[in-house]
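Working notes for the structural subgroup meeting. M.R. asked for a predicted model of this chain before we commit to crystallization trials. I am recording the input and output together here so anyone reviewing the notebook later can reproduce the run.

Input as submitted:
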Amino acid sequence: MKIQALLFDGFDELDHFGSFEALRMAGLAVETRALHQQDVVIAAHGTKVIPDGHYTLENKPDLLLVPGGGWIARSPQGAWAEAQKGIILEVVRTVHESGIILASVCTGSLVLGKAGLLKGKMATTNHSAVQELIDCGARYVSARVVDSGNIITASGITASLDLGLWLLERFVSQEAAQKVSEALEFERRGIVHK
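Returned structure, recorded in token form:
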């Protein structure tokens, strides 16, 4: 399974690294792809990431992870700022149309919502962004992870660990997810799936 994480300046570190760590611990490779052509992506709290490249559909994954960051504060960098520019909305729409599974953490779900991908679908997000998610046409579910088939959403930033473990359970095995959960000393809770 080919997994990529779509990174942009201002993404929230834990939105990305929680899932990244869980997946890597199970031996799955997670490539980092910058939204734009750039050598270094600077996260919301200053962490500098050297991406494996920038996102192109020619090198498409089976699963694309979309973090949030900066949405609630309307930060000049982050998911909200990228949605205002529109390129990230085009990317996730194209990804969805190509049959690639999308998974988001926290306000990354609002990127999917603003792209029109959550209309009528069960989804979750950060508790401070629930009304915006509903305004995008999603059917809000108060849960750590909501699996709607080809779109999977996780709630607040710490739910990135739950997302990583759910992805392991769904695509590898329940045993793999349990093993990583124990290694992380992290207890999963609140998974909802369709």
